[in-house]
Amino acid sequence: MDIVFTRGEATAAEVNAALPDQPSSSTVRTLLRILEEKGHLKHREDGQRFVYGPTRTRAAESKSALRRVVTTFFEGSFADAVAALVDTADGKLPAEELKRIEAIIKKARTK
Fold first, then answer.
1. CB 84 within 8 Å of CB 74
2. 86-104: per-residue pLDDT in tens?
3. What is the radius of gyration, based on Cα positions, of the chain?
4. Is 45 helix (H, G, I), strand (E, B) or coil?
5. Distance CA 6, CA 64 (A)
6. Burial of 10 per CB tally in 10 Å (0-12, 13-18, 19+)
7. Regarding the domain delimited by 2-54, which CATH topology (the fold level of the hierarchy) does it fall under?
8. How do the domains of the chain map onto residue ranges?
9. Residue 54 parent element (H or E)
10. pTM, entire model
11. CB 16 within 8 A of CB 22
12. DSSP string for 68-104
């Protein structure tokens, strides 16, 4: 998905070329097909090639993916997810990041 978002659209060959330790082309085509079946990608035909593009914005996909991560790994607890992110920063969060997090929490309290 990152490759498709970065390029705007991409063929299976372009996705494969951008991946480290390139998997087989059939593996990439299968993953693109699955992402399309799940509604994350759409394709158009360009001759015999399928050109894939995202169905939603990166921001919308990011929020959806994060919700799945919180549900799957943190039993739905946003606090536990934030704590894990902060803990992995080894106490080295830049002041501007801390201010931004504080502002987000403040805004959430007023809703």
1. yes
2. 887 676 888 898 899 899 9
3. 18
4. strand
5. 18
6. buried
7. Arc Repressor Mutant, subunit A (1.10.10)
8. 2-54, 58-110
9. strand 49-54
10. 0.74
11. yes
12. HHHHHHSTT-HHHHHHHHHHHTTT---HHHHHHHHHH
